[in-house]
Specification:
By secondary structure, the chain is mostly helical. It contains three helices and two strands. Helix content is 61%, strand content 5%.
Length: 174
Amino acid sequence: MTSHVEEASFSRFSRFFQDVEDSGLRAYDGLVIQNASDIARESDRVRKETNWAYLQEKHDKKRRQEEAIKRIGEDVGRATEGGYAGKHFRMGFMTMPAPQDRLPSSCGQGFTVRSQSLHSVGGGDEDGSPNSRKQPPPKPKRDPNTKLSISSEGVNSGSASSICNRDNLENFDP
């Protein structure tokens, strides 16, 4: 009888330990699933946040471009209302000088309209006059001992002889 009681108690203990082990494994599996779910949820949140920031930036860029186009259109509209179409017009992404037939009619025949960029190329002029230009450095003087090439000697001698002939013709009295 004692063996029968021992077997029954051993059987109860083994069932108890088996239940504890099963219960621990179920809890562990639940935690693993919960952790994987949290990781997936966080990954989705980061992806959505990044995508939202990208879309927001793209939308802002498009809105700024549309506003710039609208402002340029308004500026062109205001310029054409006054009878003067402006110095430049915009075509796509390029700004081009206005054609000559669109210039104001008050300009004289000898007057040439220059692009503003031509005035700003030279940098800062001291006197501030738009007509003043920077002069190139003077040419270096030729050493008289340097022999010229044959072609330039022929030109120089030909011009010298023609000068001499002119002098002779002026003094020549028939």
